Amino acid sequence: MAKIILSINAGSSSVKISVFSASQGRSPKQIAETQIDGLTSPPPRLKYTRGSKPIHKGEEVSSKISSQNDAFKHMLDMLIGDPELSEINSKEDVGIACHRVVHGGDYEEPKIIDKETYDHLEVLTDLAPLHNSSALEIVRFCISDLPHTRNIAVFDSQFHHTIPEHIRTYPINQEIARKNKLRKYGFHGISYSFITRSVAEFLGKDIGKTSLIILHLGSGASACAVKDGKSWDTSMGLTPLAGLPGATRSGSVDPSLVFHYASDVGKLSPASTSSLHISRAEEILNKESGWKSLTGTTNFGTIASSSERSHKLAFDILVDRICSYIGSYYVTLHGNVDALVFAGGIGEKSSKLRKRVTEDVGCLGFTIDEEENDKEISGIVQDVGARDARHRTLVCATDEQFEMARLCATDEQLFS
């Protein structure tokens, strides 16, 4: 029997909902997709596609929306109220709501959200304050207002549970580390799961014999080394802050830098609440850094096309950090790399960034085909590398919402 699955992806400034029809054990079929973004830079804007037909293309939302939960409720009401979307006529028609939860701690697989799971995720909120809190706000609403719907948490960290102990362990007092669960967890795992499976299929290889260097590049950016189909290392760590710089994140810096940056970094931020504790240090490094701090904009397309010195500096910094991870992962994989894969909004859209990165790591055997690289990305996986290169260079249009729905549909316990 087919069920309606809502894949809910609450980001720091947006909420996406993909609607799928799915039967147990089969690949889900998307029937609608909607998104509200601009929550941190009003006015919020709505996109809505039913099937392949665009209904809203980024119109301003007239009703008051100030939080991710407001955005979710607005879009849910719109989906239920759409007479052309016959599969959803009421809240009771939603069989499964699967929620992207960034930090899952030690959870290695998706979990049905019961009281124990929810309480555990609340404890982890301080480790991913930009994401977990907004996701759990929507979870609370679904539990209270959609009582017939099964809520499932799919974790960005679960893909990385295979990272070896010597890579995930920080060189600090291990008794304290174990007590406070201080280790590398890694994130963007839902995306990396989709990419690894899709690229293995594209290459015609068994996923267990596929090794990749993957770059998930967006306003939040990370890199991942995949060895024989499993995560071997990734750039993010205990929290999503470590690793590559992002739109407003610093990425990895000298740990003592923030104490020289301001005198009040140990105090709680005014943005903290009784249930969410954010220090000034976390606020500075998560929200007041990255390429926005260098250029004044979070729009990477503007940065990549500008000749301004500050924009060029931001572009060069990102390229340098990306290449450092590619080199490191190439060594840790002993050169056994099937492909370098670009993904995420920037990875998929910025041909200039792909060209520059590939050229800078050309000594490793990656070569770009400029004609292919300049083409619009039309498939799930597209080859942009030179035919005679030692290693493939690919672009993957990642789909976290599909991967979430697929994980729910292919697991009998989750689905039934």
TrEMBL record:
Substrate binds at residue 100. The active site is at 156 (proton donor/acceptor). Mg(2+) binds at residues 9, 400. Pathway: Metabolic intermediate biosynthesis; acetyl-CoA biosynthesis; acetyl-CoA from acetate: step 1/2. It catalyses: acetate + ATP = acetyl phosphate + ADP. The keyword ATP-binding applies. It is an enzyme of class 2 (transferase). Residues 36-61 are annotated as: Disordered. Keywords: ATP-binding, Kinase, Magnesium, Metal-binding, Nucleotide-binding, Transferase. Its cofactor is Mg(2+). This is Probable acetate kinase. GO terms for biological process: acetate metabolic process; acetyl-CoA biosynthetic process. Pfam families: Acetate_kinase (PF00871). The keyword NAD does not apply. Its EC number is 2.7.2.1. Belongs to the acetokinase family. InterPro entries: Ac/propionate_kinase (IPR004372), Aliphatic_acid_kin_short-chain (IPR000890), Aliphatic_acid_kinase_CS (IPR023865), ATPase_NBD (IPR043129). ATP binds at residues 16, 216-220. The record marks 188, 249 as: Transition state stabilizer. One of its GO terms (molecular function) is magnesium ion binding. It comes from Glarea lozoyensis (strain ATCC 20868 / MF5171). PANTHER family: ACETATE KINASE, ACETATE KINASE-RELATED.
